[in-house]
Amino acid sequence: MFITKPSKFRSKVLLQFLVVVVVVVQLKGFGKKMEKPSNLAGTIYHPIANAVVVTRYLGATLVLPHIRGTIPGEMRNFGGIYDVKKFVKSLDGIIKIAKDQPDEVSINNVTIAEVPNRVSEAYIATNIKPLFKMNGNLRLETKFPPLSMTNEKEFNYLDSLSCLAMFGTLELQPPLKEVIDLMVERLRALSHRSDGQFIAADLRVEMLEKRECQESGDSGTKWCYNAKAIGDFLRKIGFHRNTTIYLTQSKWHSMLDPLRNFYPKTYTKDDIMPADKKAKFLNANSPEFTKIIDFHICTQSDVFLPSISGQFYTNVVGRRIASGNSQILVPTKSTNSSSPGAYISPYISRKSHSAYSCFC
Known about the structure:
Number of strands: 15
Strand order of the largest sheet: 7-4-2-1-9-8
Oligomer: single chain
Radius of gyration: 21 Å
Distance between the termini: 30 Å
Shape: globular
Helix content: 25-40%
Number of helices: 13
């Protein structure tokens, strides 16, 4: 995101943020090296919140972002994915928004300012405002702490604005929302033996190939779980063989067979997406669509099961808290209890997720 000095053509300062769809502009760990997660759908909410908060604090005007795709040099129009009218209307009277970048502003002549996830007033005053005064043109890059959320005690009066920006400004464009709704309807139809309920599991082959399932401490928690481990976990806590499971994998892979062997109603996007929608939304050249679809299906499922700790898991939890859907089960190596309630995410059981600061 970036800020520019007023020119003779404009009396107001301008703030623009450039967000990578689902994967933010820059992803950096705090205090230790962090591998970039391969699926960060939903992360756009945090740089949007930062942009709104900083814009408000500086009295700037927010310029609608271009959305950077995963292919180098690829840029998408914000309105191609999100409802611009909804976004502008939801922030009316709070900040000013410009739909286009002024011709006299060049993205190549800006100063980068790093911003922590859910930026505080103190941070803006100390680190951003001086740069803004000195340079006029600033691009904000949101940093994320590894596998955690910022401590909500750091937040102050900006909290309500940040909450509005994260949970009350973004709606998908109708074509994308339609395909997600159709896929959810299909999953519920396939789940008729379990009252239309289904599980969504964040399980992707690319993740299994790049990460080892390493144990963490003595709690029995692992960094990730493969298809067999997920199947064993669900079976031990009582999910019957006819349970419908959605995976964030786009197309089926033999590495997922151990899960389908016991749970035959396990599906990928390729299995349930309408055929006439695949050319656009299941295109390898537009992976941001598949990640957005995964994010929204995982937030709407009756049960969400993360097979890996990461920002995707954290963001899905936030959206599920916002919708009151708290059934999130975290696998463990040893299933001493057969009750699903024993494996509720700590984000829920301890109310440790920062979304609780928005929804009491």
